[in-house]
Amino acid sequence: MPLQTLKSVSDLVSAGLVSTTRADVLKDVVARYAVAVPAPFQALIDVEDPTDPLARQFVPSAEELSIQPDEHADPIGDTAHTPVKGVVHRYRDRALLKIVNVCPVYCRFCFRREMVGPGQPNILNDAELCDAVAYLRSQPGITEIILTGGDPLVLSPRRVRQLTEVLSEIPHVQRLRWHTRMPVAQPDRITTELVAALTPTEKQVRAAVHINHARELSSRARSACRRLATAGINLLSQSVLLRGVNDTPDALAVLAAAFQTADIAPYYLHHLDLAPGTGHFRVPIRDGHALLAAVQQRHPDLALPTYILDIPGGAGKVPITAAHVRFIGRDPLGDLYRVRDPLNHVHIYRDPARR
Predict the structure, then answer these.
(1) How many percent of the chain have pLDDT more than 70?
(2) Which among 249, 240, 236 is positioned nearest to 274, based on CA atoms?
(3) What is the pTM of this model?
(4) Active-site residue numbers?
(5) How many CB atoms are closer than 10 A to CB 352?
(6) Do 232 and 270 form a contact (C-beta atoms < 8 A)?
């Protein structure tokens, strides 16, 4: 029998991913945060390994019920930069269009975990989408629209084509960028029809593919990425630095090499956002610096993504370099940094102490 997407605690127990002794406590986690582990990821998880890096990303944990100081339901300030429903306009030259609130897989560290999944409106309705497009059309400084959510590639090829065509009619927009996990989570969804729906446009089309561990790039996932790249879609990497997943020099080096062989350009390695119940994934900034330095020393010719911090509250992304993020001391709850945002404003960021 083909594997089905796991969506409940009982599903996870039946698949051998959760023990019966853990089932009761996980019901509270699943009641708060959505769960979906699609078949392609199930097939890659080693159920005999209690530290499996894929299981850690997708199988719920009781640790998610532990909310730490500084964690916030909207950690990067989407709401403060939402002029109309579905649009986040944080930077002058680009805006997010959050078209859906569902995903093929729900990551346990997601920064939008309070905003996606069952119980949330699944998709912008026609009137909301019209308002969103009207806003994007009214802002001539926007040159790039980033389609996100949720995962926008859960939409049918017909809806994807409609979106592509509508957004392509905005004259000042030069690029469409789709943020997705679909090529690795459900690679068979990247069909010829879907690829064709992404590309009926003279605009540049990009796909930022979220991958945190090299094993996610299965042969089927690589084929899906190849279909996108062959159609002229530029592939970019998006990863999050996660404890127990990719927080070793070897794991990061193998991941970077996998991107290279899959024709995915290195783009962002995110410092974990301060979303509720995600502290067990957190790697301190000082450790992240040391990890990347070790990879660069061992593999000087390997292209690495930019290590970035999304400043809490909506001030934007900055590279974690001395020019933008400077250590200034410690308090009982973590390391303190002076952070200079893209508009040259200064913020104090507390990097929580490892639990």
Answers:
(1) 99
(2) 240
(3) 0.96
(4) 90-91, 94, 103, 107, 110, 112, 273, 310, 317
(5) 17
(6) no
What DSSP string runs through 54-115?
A: HHHHHS--GGGG-PPTT--SSTT-TGGG-SSTTEEEEETTEEEEE-BS--SS--TT-TTTTT
DSSP element (H, E) containing 204: strand 204-210
**What value, to the nearest 5°, has the Cα angle with vertex 200 and ends 194 and 203?**
115
> What integer pLDDT is reported at residue 355 of this predicted model?
59
What span, in angstroms and rounded, lies between the C-alpha atoms of 21 and 52? 19
Looking at per-residue pLDDT, the higher value among 138 and 118 belongs to 138
Q: Which helix (H) or strand (E) holds 290?
A: helix 285-298
The two structure tokens encoding residue 279: 């502290």
Residues 6+ apart with CB under 8 A from 205: 164, 175, 176, 177, 178, 198, 199, 232, 233, 234
Which structure tokens are listed for 27? Answer: 């019901």
Which residue type occupies 201? T
Which residue type is seen at 330? R
Counting Cα atoms < 13 Å in the Cβ hemisphere of 342 gives 14
